[in-house]
Give the backbone structure.
Amino acid sequence: MSGHSKWATIKRKKASIDAKRGKLFTKIIKELTVAAKMGGGDPDANPRLRLVVDNAKAANMPAENIDRAIKKATGELEGVSYSEMIYEGYGPGGIAIMVESLTDNKNRTVAEIRHLFSKHGGSLGESGSVAWMFERKGVITIEKENKSEDEMFELAIEAGADDLQTEETFFEVTTSIESFEPVRRKLIDAKLKIENASLQWVAKNLVELTGENAEKAMKIIEVLEDSDEVQNVFSNADFQEA
């Protein structure tokens, strides 16, 4: 199992817990706010907002929460302004880590992320220090339901996807940035149940980790993801089953 898929499986199991804690909704509200502020409050005219709204609905976020976040972004209601930030660093075992944040206070956020890196055996790097190890890709997670791997692969490739990974209970479709939205729409039109779709930093090459290094790497990724300052975390760790 690849590191990318391994962590996707862990995150998927963890998502239901995050939703109960309200963490997932908080992150989605930030994304709704930024998307609506940048491209307007109409999802039909704003592809980025349409994507976030679809993900919010998939996470069972109440419609009034979605509407309120959009209105705050467009000025109809008083709200907070967020800035998009990307932080790069190294973790246990020499893994590279990319951290995405939406923040209303850059100084507070960078201090918190630096603290978490240092506390858990990592180090925050300069801009560009690890980004070259990753590619920006579209990633779409789909419930397996009654589709076979062959059927899903054919659907994904015909829709314009680059690749398909199969896990125990879900499929993960990978696309180029340019093909991401057209592929997503075609898979929706095919009546597939999309759990989540997003642009992610996908590692070009993976670093194999086992034993103590794997445990420490999982820990630093987990604490970063649990931080209120962080939206998403990506790494080039390849967690082996052992």
Summary: The mean pLDDT is 89. The radius of gyration is 18 Å. Residues 93 and 213 are 5 Å apart (CA to CA). Residues 83-132+205-239 form a domain with the Alpha-Beta Plaits fold (CATH 3.30.70.980).
